[in-house]
Amino acid sequence: TTYDSHIRSQRKAIEKLKRPVVCTTTGMVFESLQAAAREYNISSPSNIIRAITEPWKSAGTLNGQKLSWQYAT
Question: Over the stretch 24-39, which tens digit does the pLDDT of each residue have?
C-alpha cells in the first residue's frame, strides 16, 4: 500500500542519517550526519549527503576552508 511504502521510505531516510561519516578535510569521524552537521554548524545533514554524492561540492567550512565528506567504512 501507499502507506507502507511511505513508512519504508522514512525508515530508509532515517537510517541514512545515522550512517557514520568522515570529514576528509579534517580527518574527524562522526557517528552520524546529524553529529557532523552540529559540529560544523551545517544547516542540514542533507548538505553533507549532497557533498558525498556530488564530490565537487562541499558542506560547511572551517577557518575559511571548504569541508569535503565521505561515508565511513
Answer: 999 999 999 999 999 9
Spatial separation of the C-alpha atoms in residues 18 and 38, rounded to whole Å: 13
- Determine the residue type at 33: L
pTM for this predicted structure: 0.78
- In order, the DSSP letters of the chain are -HHHHHHHHHHHHHHHHTS-EEETTT--EESSHHHHHHHTT-S-HHHHHHHHHSTT----EETTEEP-EEE--
Nearest to 69 by CA among 37, 43, 16: 37
49 contacts 33 by C-beta, under 8 angstroms: yes
Q: Which residues pair with 62 in a beta bridge?
A: 65
